[in-house]
Prior knowledge:
single chain; globular; ten-stranded antiparallel β-sheet; eight-stranded parallel beta barrel; 21% helix; alpha+beta
Amino acid sequence: MLSDTINLSTPALSCVFRATDGLALAAYGLPGLPWALPSSGLFAVEVDGQRIDGRTPGLAVADVTLREVPAGRRELTVALRHAEAGLAIDYHLALYTESALIESWVTLRNSGSALRRVTRIDSLALDLPAGSYERLSFTGSWGLEFEPERAAVTEREILESRSGRSSLGHLPWFALTRDGRSLLAGAVAWSGNWVVRLEPSGAGLALSGGLHDWAFAAELPPGAEIVSPPFVVALAAGQELAAISTQYARVGRRYWYPHNDLADRLPVEWNHWWSYEDKDIDEAVFRRNVDAAAELGVEVCTLDAGWFGPSDADTHWYEQRGDWDMVNMQRFPAGLRALSDYVHARGMAFGLWCEIEAIGKQARLAADRPELVATRDGAPLGYVCLGSAAGQAWALATLDRIIDEYRCDWVKLDFNLDPGAGCDRADHGHSPGDGLYAHYRGYYALLAEIRARYPRVVLENCSSGGLRIDLGIARQTHMAFLSDPDWPEHSLQCFWGASMMLAPDALLHWSYCEWSHAEHRCQQFDPRDPALQPHQIDYYTRISMLRRFGFSQRIAELPAWVAARYRAHIADYKQHVRRFVRQADLLPLSGQPQRFGAGERWAAFQYSMPDGSEHLLAVFRLPGAELGRAVAPLRLDPQRSYTLTWLAEGRVEQRGGADLLADGLRFELPEEGSALVLLR
Length: 680
């Protein structure tokens, strides 16, 4: 056992605990700038109606361990025991030595002889010092992801999702500015229901949260345990959000995100969906577009929904979800392996869409395998309960067969329903009140097993677009799809918001798509419109090039000049841009652009390599903006001279670092104009 004082401080973070008579903070914050009071309980659980936190009398420290695996990540585990309650509580804290970022979570085990009922488990509980607090958070719904909320914290606030999907409701991320001098950002690494509570008190502001206690209850028999999702917190001085987001991105890239060769390449993708929804796709159409994709330089071709179910041209994908053993042979008479082989023969990777959790109303699966169905109060919820052993085994066998039989290189995993509080069946191996928790633990285990069996296969996370984006699923999949719509303002708004929590290389969004059924008033792009101008094509495409990108257009029918423009942009992305997306720090140089004409009307971003040797500026003039603007880059050396190269334009000039920092770089662009500038 270590000493009673546990000092985990680094040059970037002050973090000291006292491990006598329970567990308490001695210090937490930036050096010289505290962010928590010593009275903090650190965590909180409620068992059989009794609240227990690090300050609860009768809580004894049994052991303290500290390990560093892998290098740079230090994990503290404090084993706490409450003999009277019959509970063993392991408090965990992970620190990342090159940042001011921590993760906090709890393992709760029934060490007694009677059943225990857990109704709340907060991964983090801190008492923040007195001050003037301003909150930034985001709400999310379909097509309205990353809608900002800014407000002074003057009364009790609850940020939450109760939909069963992490980013339908609020997004599981927030930032607090205190006295305009320093920042705290928090994120719950969980894909289901979560909560963050901000509660003003006489001493300051109480912060707590993690797994949502709404409609939750876990029954623990003797020896059983439950693990809470991590609550991730990062601190920074000043008010610049990039000081926080770069910490999340650097730690994510190094420690959290899965990696493989194809995913790390950031391949350019074509997906058929918006141009050929469901019954509009067939074998001949897909092959024609595969040929066009190869000519453009695309690297992945993905067959989205529409491939499965009865062999009927009019069958609807949503109703057939779950019948993954059936290929619609009327649409794909040669089968999917033939399509996969065709894509591979053209030198590209093959992707396939699957909503492995879902059960459509007309799917045979529910009748054939009723033991898999998640229900609540006896009514089916429309998904396979992965909290059951049978559900996990079926899902693993199904994905195993799909990936192997069709030689998939990429699997797009969607989820188009709201499970709410989740399954309450008594025969699934979980408690009636923790079915959703068990489902997500099962889903994470499924994804981890698939990655272990198929280490070269890329897993894409999607949920009605961007309704399940969080740091929990980011540890199991290679990227998150940002949103179904992708018109330019919306795309920029989503990217700005998502990059607060996830690195750009963990994000995927397509260029302005061509929707075959354009009910959405803003989703009206037509690449064959005779009024379309080259600078507009550049603007639409470059916006998507800020992260992982691709196309969902009828690329086999593009005008020659549009295809040539796409080919050039794809080449620029491969040669110049994606290494910045993969390695560099992202620095927003403007506020968040917003859809429907709101927010910032010039959008500017800077990618900076960590060693400061190279930078990439991406600048966009949105409709309604003034003609010109000076954009001031960051992190330049005032003593050095820089070579500026405008991609696609070929213009090159020399500028001094001090001059650029002081006066910026002047851009005069048409509406829907853009520029990409390399600085070396």
